[in-house]
Amino acid sequence: MVNEMDLSAIERRILPLIKDFNNFERIENLSKKTGIKKDALIKALSMLSEKNLVNKKEEVLEEVILTRIGEEVLKKGFPEKNFLLGIKDSISIKDYKKKSRLKEQEFNISMGLLKKNNCITIKNGEIIKNQESNKFLKELIKKEELIKEIGKKEYYLKKENKFIKEFLKRGLVQKKTRIIREYKINAIGKKVLKTLNENVIERLTPQMISNGTWRNKKFRSYNINLKYSYSFSKKHFLKEMMSLIKQIFVEMGFKEMKSDYVESSFWNFDNCFMRQDHPNREIMDTYFLKYPQKARIPKNLSKIIKSVHEDGWKTGSKGWGSEWSENEAGKLILRTHTTATTFRMLSKQLKPPYKFFSVDRIFRNETLDFKHLHEFHQVEGVIVADKPLSLANLIAILKEFYKKMGVKKLRFKPTYNPYTEPSMEIFAYLPKIKKWVEIGNSGVFRPEVLLPHGITKPVIAWGLGLERLAMLCYGIKDIRQVYGHFVDIDKIRNAKPMFKVSE
Fold it and tell me: Does residue 163 have a pLDDT over 70?
């Protein structure tokens, strides 16, 4: 049986502080009552639990918390509700835009949403309120009550909720996995508590020997027969993959390129011929910086990009036919892809041929699931040749790259990208979950993104998901097992690739 001599200093300190707790209590409450930091408390209570002096309960729950957009809804209400409440029977779109306090983007989204749900009808430029709007309004009030509930206290998702699903899609809330730890002292702990002596010390110091104070002390006992284990340090397999990928690209004649995590919308979106009202630029998908909000953008290049977006410039394109805003282009963000790095490289107007790659971090406000994270790595590659390149060249390069990784089951599917044409998605087979998983995107750059940088010959480029590639090579079912609180340290330590990587 454990006695007072087996307890460490912090265990001896904590045990008396929890003597009055008759019921299980959360670690957060114990931290407040004892004044001990949460991490130190968890460690000490875990040791006390192993010694069977306290009982513990752990529960993994999904907490739902408001995002910045959700907090706006909490303050102002749903924009579509405010839109509906501002209409009596009917009003012209032009007059209501002037009268409404909604931002233009909120106004347009609300009008589209309400029209879709048959709450309003648009006829001859008039907004007509329908009877179905009353039912929709009642549902919006219920949604706002739920938003208030989430904003006031801890909200845990115990079962499926259609409103929460909608909030997640709209970027109003996000899920966060919480481990709820609760502890209480047990009968054995109470017995040991009665025997605690303040004169127990853990180590003998030179001062104690010189002044003789050790004579009246009791020394903590140590079990020298306990079995122990050790393991050698090892790189996280994601780091190993990064090193391997860099090595493969260097062997294939590529040079590495780098850029910063914080990027302007100009390089991240506008250079990619991504129109300024494209959904990817919305706050739901992109992390915008609050301070500073604006970046300087190159004046000469911005004039060309403006023309490309508005009328196509000299590219043979008609552009997007909408006004381009320098203010929008200057907004600072956490980059959503490393293609911004590629365009910074293309803007240097190096003499072809040249090949560059990057393996770097990107950030997106995704809904977390088995294949999506908020923060992950992208493998970017670009080839600028002194002769025309085609989709066949791109497929050959990608097949060669994955062959060196030991991955042979690949599929290519046509897709749409604003900045490449033709474009294709890359899929690889994941044996563990028996599914084809998208691991990248690629294509041939459009003239709209090349001519502003003085490049006249076709350029091929691609962006691959590193974490998804890790899932494929290491047989991982859930991308959250790569890092974070789902990680099993032993599995990370013993991870071995499912495919034999080529030498």
Answer: yes
